[in-house]
């Protein structure tokens, strides 16, 4: 690839995604300055590795893969988390054999969704592991297909499906507790 | 449907006659049972809208794009 073609590819298919990469990293780090630093590193790495990117494919998923690797391999090693992360075995308790969305249906039917949950969602996200949080963000905030998530997370498709399901249930369970204690919305189901 | 027996979940005393909102089951308008997958799809779509509304994208810091371009220019110069 010529230098001009490489520069054009970088600008048109990769750099255009910098706002969404920044926001993804902001949700992962919860720190604006850390998210900005990691975004810079992600795009430097993208430039250096651009020969590994195939033009016309999914630039956003490729960038999320780089960003996720930087976050887990570099950022997490530097900053050990103080809080307890939800472990996969604990998350398994949140399974719901009928429908992973049953708990959310309760909130929807009870009319709780018009309320402001923004702070509570951020708090609930901290109870998810890094992997779970990244997958929920990609699946539900950025509308990645499961196959794209599998590529970005470098995980088998079936694992992505099960982690997505458990992560949603864990998140909804946190939000249900909040809805019950704050708005008095009584949940009649038992997810866990 | 209302909840007479449940005490106030946040510990505050319930007022007499005060009805707590409670979840009601979906009633089919056709009189038939809708397929379960329909509920699941509706709920997933609502869940995504709910997350997007509560997790709006923030504008990146003003100088971020310039910083990235400066880093790339530095790499080009060194090559």
Automatic annotation (TrEMBL), chain A:
InterPro entries: RNA_pol_sigma-70-like, RNA_pol_sigma-70_dom, RNA_pol_sigma70_r2, RNA_pol_sigma70_r4_t2, RNA_pol_sigma_r2, RNA_pol_sigma_r3/r4-like, WH-like_DNA-bd_sf. The keyword Transmembrane helix does not apply. Residues 119-170 form the RNA polymerase sigma factor 70 region 4 type domain. It comes from Neolewinella aquimaris. Residues 17-81 form the RNA polymerase sigma-70 region domain. One of its GO terms (molecular function) is sigma factor activity. Pfam families: Sigma70_r2, Sigma70_r4_2. Transmembrane segments: none annotated. SUPFAM superfamilies: Sigma2 domain of RNA polymerase sigma factors, Sigma3 and sigma4 domains of RNA polymerase sigma factors. This is RNA polymerase sigma-70 factor (ECF subfamily). Belongs to the sigma-70 factor family. ECF subfamily.
Automatic annotation (TrEMBL), chain B:
Residues 1-39 are annotated as: Disordered. Residues 19-35 have a biased composition (Basic and acidic residues). Residues 1-13 have a biased composition (Polar residues). This is Uncharacterized protein.
């Amino acid at each position: 690839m010529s230098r001009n073609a490489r520069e054009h590819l970088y600008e048109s298919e990769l750099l255009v995604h910098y706002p969404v990469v920044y926001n993804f990293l902001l949700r992962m780090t919860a720190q604006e300055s850390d998210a900005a630093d990691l975004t810079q590193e992600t795009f430097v790495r993208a430039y250096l590795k651009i020969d590994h990117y195939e033009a016309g494919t999914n630039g956003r998923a490729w960038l999320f893969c780089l960003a996720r690797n930087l976050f887990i391999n570099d950022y997490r090693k530097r900053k050990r988390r103080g809080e307890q992360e939800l472990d996969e075995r604990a998350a398994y308790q949140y399974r719901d054999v009928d429908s992973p969305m049953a708990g959310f249906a309760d909130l929807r039917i009870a009319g709780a969704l018009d309320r402001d949950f923004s702070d509570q969602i951020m708090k609930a996200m901290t109870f998810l592991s890094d992997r779970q949080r990244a997958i929920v963000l990609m699946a539900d905030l950025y509308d990645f297909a499961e196959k794209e998530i599998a590529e970005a997370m470098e995980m088998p498709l079936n694992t992505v499906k099960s982690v997505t399901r458990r992560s949603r249930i864990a998140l909804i369970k946190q939000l249900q507790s909040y809805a019950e204690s704050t708005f008095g919305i009584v949940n009649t189901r038992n997810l866990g | 449907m209302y909840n007479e027996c449940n005490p106030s979940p946040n510990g505050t005393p319930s007022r007499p006659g005060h009805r707590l909102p409670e979840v009601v089951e979906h009633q089919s308008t056709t009189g038939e049972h809708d397929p379960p997958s329909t509920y699941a799809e509706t709920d997933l779509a609502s869940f995504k809208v709910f997350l997007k509304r509560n997790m709006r994208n923030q504008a990146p810091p003003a100088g971020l794009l310039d910083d990235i371009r400066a880093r790339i220019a530095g790499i080009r110069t060194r090559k």
